[in-house]
Write a structure and sequence with these properties.
Elements: E1 13-17, E2 20-23, E3 26-28, E4 32-35, E5 40-42, H1 53-60, E6 66-70, H2 84-88, E7 92-96, H3 98-110, E8 115-119
Parallel strand pairs: 6-7, 6-8
Antiparallel strand pairs: 1-2, 2-3, 4-5, 4-8
Length: about 120
């Protein structure tokens, strides 16, 4: 039986709360894109209503297997037309609230998957 935590070679989300997450030792308080390949990119949106098609086109440029979209405190879906750049690259997108997206990202990244988390961090 193993009594020590798993060690990951990818950046992981170590904690989260309303309006913030911690990635490894860094506390982040604004929306962010993180990837299992080590990228961390500021995502210029602070509310779901701020999102545009360009935000999802930016995600398509990251060339991941799957994008986990954390839509804030509750699960909200972007308009399907905004997802065309992702579909054109055959990239999957899963939408869930941001806390669930953090947990899902950690699981997939820990499995060695090429995953991106686009996390909407709304100001409480």
């Amino acid at each position: 039986m193993k009594f020590q935590p798993d060690q990951f070679d990818v950046q992981t989300i170590t904690a989260y709360g309303p309006g913030w997450i911690s990635v490894d030792a860094d506390k982040i308080t604004s929306s962010v894109i993180i990837s299992s390949r080590g990228q961390r990119i500021a995502w210029d949106c602070s509310r779901f209503e701020d999102l545009t098609p360009a935000h999802f086109a930016q995600l398509a440029e990251l060339d991941a297997e799957v994008v986990i979209f954390g839509s804030g405190a509750r699960n909200r879906f972007p308009p399907p037309a905004w997802l065309q750049p992702l579909m054109a690259r055959r990239m999957g997108l899963e939408t869930m609230d941001t806390q669930a997206a953090c947990r899902t990202y950690n699981i997939l990244a820990g499995e060695g998957r090429n995953v991106v988390a686009a996390l909407l961090l709304e100001t409480p």
